[in-house]
Amino acid sequence: KAGVTQTPRYLIKTRGQQVTLSCSPISGHRSVSWYQQTPGQGLQFLFEYFSETQRNKGNFPGRFSGRQFSNSRSEMNVSTLELGDSALYLCASSQTSGVHNEQFFGPGTRLTVL
Amino acid sequence: AQSVTQLGSHVSVSEGALVLLRCNYSSSVPPYLFWYVQYPNQGLQLLLKYTSAATLVKGINGFEAEFKKSETSFHLTKPSAHMSDAAEYFCAVSEREGTDKLIFGTGTRLQVFP
Predict the structure, then answer these.
(1) Inter-chain contact A42–B46, Cβ cutoff 8 Å?
(2) Nearest C-alpha of chain B: how many angstroms from A97?
(3) B42-72 per-position pLDDT tens digit
(4) Could you say which residues from 53 to 72 on chain A have a Cβ atom under 8 Å away from some Cβ of chain B?
(5) Whole-angstrom distance, CA of residue B100 vs CA of residue A12
(6) Which residues in chain B have their CB less than 8 angstroms from residue A94's CB?
(7) CB B97 to CB A31 under 8 A?
(8) Tens digit of each residue's pLDDT (9 = 90 or more) over B73-87
(9) How far apart, in whole angstroms, are the C-alpha atoms of residue A109 and residue A15?
(10) Mind giving me the DSSP string for B42-91?
């Protein structure tokens, strides 16, 4: 069974641009979550989606948005990029959401904002 | 709000020595607690989790953790370190049962010397 896939793996953008990151969950998984990982702030929760509905949102500005499609694939978008958005963005999927289901993490997309 | 504190951002041990990584939680309700490991350039992998069953939880790769309510701790241990254990370890807490949202500690980097 293929794991969680994130594309692209590496991305370089300049300030003010926007970016879209993609996450394909494990087949059969309906819940997708996103996290931002930086050396300064650590791992911070961005969003959680289940069956195309956003169930939870972290404390990030409105420039960060996401969505989930009917096939459970998810995208996150960051508009008007800032230098501080440089980070590793991790996606995780689980079957039905909740602590009794294991989340599987993808390898991440490393975003560099210049 | 729930949180976890990991004491020691870096821990160094010799191969074959005991590994002890510390995690304390702050929660007003019974928490759900997790330990994840992250190898360089990879996503997170679940080592073990506590979901109110047995207080001593056994995980993968010989790791285990004990939930101690009186000490609000969930320390990770391994009797004998192996070179391949060198990685970053994260303790995390879940807010409630019906969500995948995790709140992570700041991480502990484990170095293993021959």
Answers:
(1) no
(2) 5
(3) 899 999 998 877 889 999 999 999 999 899 9
(4) 55-56, 58
(5) 29
(6) 100
(7) no
(8) 999 999 999 999 999
(9) 18
(10) S-EEEEEEESSS-SEEE-GGG-EEEEETTTTEEEEEESS--GGG-EEEEE
How far is C-alpha A11 from the geometric centre of its chain's CA atoms?
A: 14
Pick from A96, A52, A94, A102: nearest CA to A73? A52
What is the Cα–Cα distance from A21 to A6, expressed in whole angstroms? 8
For testing contact with chain B, the best of A99, A100, A103, A104 (most B CBs within 10 A): A99
User: Per the structure block, which two tokens stand in for A67?
Assistant: 């969505």
- Per-residue burial over A46-84, b if 16 or more Cβ lie within 10 Å, else e, is bbbbbeeeebbebebeeebbbebeeebbbbbebeebeee
Q: Which tokens hold the place of B30? A: 């019974």
**Are the C-beta atoms of residues B100 and A97 closer than 8 Å to each other?**
yes
Q: How far off is chain B from A16, nearest CA to CA, in Å?
A: 27
Tokens of A88: 């590793």
Task: Give me the residue label for tokens 């070179």.
Answer: B83
H and E: helices and strands count for chain B: 0, 11
Question: Residues A64-98: pLDDT tens digits?
Answer: 999 999 999 999 999 999 999 999 999 999 988 67
In our burial notation (b when 16+ CB lie closer than 10 A, e otherwise), range A17-44 reads eebebebbbbeebbbbbbbbbeeeeebb
